[in-house]
Design a protein that fits this description.
The protein has two domains: about 190 residues, 2,3-Dihydroxybiphenyl 1,2-Dioxygenase, domain 1 (Roll), CATH 3.10.180; about 80 residues, 2,3-Dihydroxybiphenyl 1,2-Dioxygenase, domain 1 (Roll). It is built from seven helices and 16 strands. The strands form two sheets. Strands 2-3-4-1-13-16-15-14 form an eight-stranded mixed beta sheet. An eight-stranded mixed beta sheet has the order 6-7-8-5-9-12-11-10, with helices on one face. β2 and β3 form a beta hairpin. The protein starts with a strand and ends with a helix.
Length: about 290
């Protein structure tokens, strides 16, 4: 599994409290603890929790599927995530799983707790993208778009509503009920949904990609903003579907974490003025 790709969750001051909660629920550990950024490791996967302020709220357009091996495991996570949370789909038996529930926890993050029988997915927690509103019907296009951009990528499986179980009549048979794809070895699920939800993709949940050099940074940045995406600041962008990405050279993190605080601060100040991150300019700021 690729730990250079990981989700970033946006908070308004309660990232640390949330990090401690997830480490307790999933028996994880905190790997970075700063006022702005908390990193945690759960099941060998990285999650970044960002105290970014009140601007964005997390929502169910990106949820997290927890693949469980036993009904007891499903119940264990459900009970803990429901503490202060809200059930979006009550835990129970569904056509696609003997035991499943969808919960929004007290921090606004939504989890699908799922008994995955015979699932050969090694990744325990899988971001699940919901294509709704103007994106409904575009899940297949998005998977093709992402898997063409990233190396070591593939569409693993696609179940369309016309082939699936439990299809309500209002879903288009050709649309995706459930699909699994990988970008650079990191698993995602996705689905189309025609329901008029009061939310959509936003910066509340983004995907971070750590890059090894400028060439890789340029390729991912230019590819993801193509066909109607748009650049934002500090390595952030939105793709054509409105999904947020952060394209972050590892060199930026090295320079920002330099023991010389003055040099590190110059790097941060330079980065704050950038859209796409340019490593050469950061290094020049560092030595200036």
């Amino acid at each position: 599994m690729n730990n250079n790709i990981f989700p970033c969750l946006w908070y308004d001051g309660d990232a640390k409290e949330s990090a401690e909660f997830y480490c307790k629920v999933f028996d994880g550990k905190i790997t970075a603890d700063t006022p702005v950024v908390m990193n945690i490791d759960v099941f060998g996967q990285k999650l970044m929790l960002l105290n970014g302020g009140p601007h964005f709220k997390k929502n169910a357009s990106v949820s997290f599927m927890i693949i469980c091996e036993t009904e007891d495991e499903v119940q264990k996570y459900w009970d803990q995530l429901m503490d202060g949370g809200i059930a979006l789909m009550e835990i129970g038996e569904y056509p696609w799983s003997k035991k499943y529930g969808w919960v929004r926890d007290r921090f606004g993050v939504t989890w699908q707790v799922y008994l995955g029988e015979n699932d050969d997915v090694e990744q325990k927690i899988i971001p699940t993208l919901m294509f709704i509103h103007q994106n409904n019907g575009k899940a297949m296009k998005a998977m093709e778009f992402y898997t063409e951009i990233f190396p070591n990528s593939k569409i693993v499986s696609v179940l369309k509503y016309g082939e699936g179980v439990g299809n309500e009549s209002h879903e288009v048979p050709e649309n995706v009920q459930h699909a699994h794809f990988e970008i650079d070895g990191y698993s995602f699920f996705c689905m189309d949904n025609s329901y008029d939800h009061q939310f959509d993709f936003n910066e509340g949940i983004s995907m971070v990609v750590m890059t090894g050099n400028q060439e890789e940074t340029d390729h991912l940045w230019n590819s993801l903003i193509s066909d109607g995406g748009r650049e934002s600041m500090c390595g952030w962008l939105k793709d054509q579907f409105g999904m947020s990405w952060q394209i972050v050279p590892k060199r930026l993190i090295e320079l920002m974490n330099d023991s010389n605080q003055e040099k590190a601060q110059k790097v941060v100040q330079t980065m704050m003025k950038m859209q796409k991150i340019v490593i050469k300019d950061l290094e020049e700021a560092y030595i200036s």
